[in-house]
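Hi R.,

Here's the input for the magnesium ion complex you asked about:
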Amino acid sequence: MLRSHTLGEIPSLQGKEVRVCGWIHDIRVLGRIAFIILRDRYGFAQVTLIRGLVGKEKFRKYTKIPRESVVCIRGRVQKSEQAKLGFEILPEEIEVLNRADSPLPLGVADKVDAEIDTRIENRFLDMRKREILSIFEIRNIILQGIREYLLANNFIEVHTPKIVATATEGGTELFPVKYFEKNAYLNQSPQLYKQMLMAAGLDRVLEVAPAFRAEEHNTTRHLNEFISIDIEMSFANEEDAMQMLEGSIVNAIRKLKEEREEEMKTLEIEWDVPKLPFRRITYDEALEIVKNNGIEMEWGEDFSAEALNALGSELQEFYFITRWPMEIKPFYVLPDGKYSHAFDLMYGEKEITSGAQRNHIYESLVEVMRSKGLNPENFEYYLRAFRYGMPPHAGWGLGLERLTMIVTGVKNIRECVIFPRDRTRLVP
Ligand code: ATP
Ligand code: MG
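And here is the predicted structure with magnesium ion in place:
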């Protein structure tokens, strides 16, 4: 083994011999004594070099190791009143495993802010910063908190194809791919497949997978590839789906508070576990709020960015918008006259989730498809699942990066993906 412990483990190992490995965060030389700050994913350690103890030769060699080099240090952990962390390592030997070039294209220890493009081009360096790493530790906990809740509620995790023959929503936001002699697309959503799994009798399915949208616009809340957390549940209506969603989010935030206190401090964020149930307002009520803010909007229109800002200024919390007009919702949503059984989960001005009770009646589904200008023949593989025993069902799709944005408070969705895909970026 290269290392005996991580830096997260050593504060409790006072007096012990350890071998720890990581990156050189910083080196400060103060005459005959030098401090090397070592860093790994779990923490920092101060390595105290005393010239009289390690010898002149090693002292000179060790203090010249470039920042961000990867090293392993063998030494003894010791309590220290002076050290900021309360302990230090007195090294016997420092081995350089990989020497970093200098200058660094992007500073890690320094507080200077770099442009997001420079940061993403050097993402491996950027992520060595605590405040960046914290975003991804939190993203992970949110995902695990949601998954944990759903698995405890009998959801089965599945994977559906991402290379598909037809558009889910019929729209233009599709990336074409060559599939041997056929034309195919990258899937925008697992919607149609998870519904077919209701006909398969899986009862409750969960999928966590990429979704691809060829949206031309470059905004701070759209990506061209994002992670969608999707569920579909049988013998359920939209209220059941909403309860599953709010329960998942509350569990994620509870877990975050329990397990990522350090990262929350780093990002200077605070969360109270939201109270259940989340507020529910209808589309009509939301429309009133928008109009009362002096914004023009007709019934049946979707909320513009301006309208969403008006909603956000009054509702800085998780809330549902229910009873949407059917004309602005996809064909698979269950209609209710000119209304529908669809809902969105919002936080402030941001949409996090869209969901609905679905239309499980074959004839009605075909009729809605036609009315929306879609050709049912292109969806035969999907529609046949509705002819031989399809239970009523409901579900939703949640954008993991959108939720991470809200929880961490970052302003640009690109901050919530390690290697973002946007209108212009395809590398790294
Ligand atoms: P928006 O109106 O915000 O563009 P949408 O209504 O087109 O989103 P849906 O098809 O309802 O999106 O997708 C479900 C969820 O997936 C959204 O609520 C959002 O959290 C997420 N999502 C959708 N498109 C994107 C995208 N381009 N980038 C990141 N997340 C997205
Ligand atoms: Mg939506």
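One thing worth noting: Residues 301 and 343 are 15 Å apart (CA to CA).

Cheers,
M.
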